[in-house]
Amino acid sequence: METQIRSALVNWLRTAPTLSGLLNTVEEETPLSISPPWLGIAASASSDWSTKDRRGHEVRIALELHTRGDGIAGDGALIGAIMRRIESLPHSQPDFDLVASQFLRARAERRELNVRVVLIEYRFRLLETQSAL
Questions:
Q1: What is the pTM of this model?
Q2: Given a cut of 60, is residue 133 above it in pLDDT?
Q3: Which CATH number is correct for 2-132, 3.20.20.70, 3.30.2000.30, 1.10.1740.10, 3.30.750.24?
């Protein structure tokens, strides 16, 4: 289910009207030749979250937002839009039901060439649907 939630999340973020004009791309991993701002999955990990009658996973996903510039004020609005979009991911998906999602943490840092990076981590609790069996 880790692969399915990663794919669903990337597609959900890519189709966000509010983000399409603010991000150059949303990718499942670091894009090779795209200039900031871009958003990608930095890492994910999953563990068992099954019930007696349904297979389930708890999946943690860290997204990395890359921006560039001197001022950080614009990043706050962009991060807010990304988080609102993540939190509105539909609960019913083809292969799983999203039972719960929770923001866990964020970390910001400045890197070389005036690049700013914000790491945003979420936890998703999923149960497999009958159609996925």
A1: 0.91
A2: no
A3: 3.30.2000.30
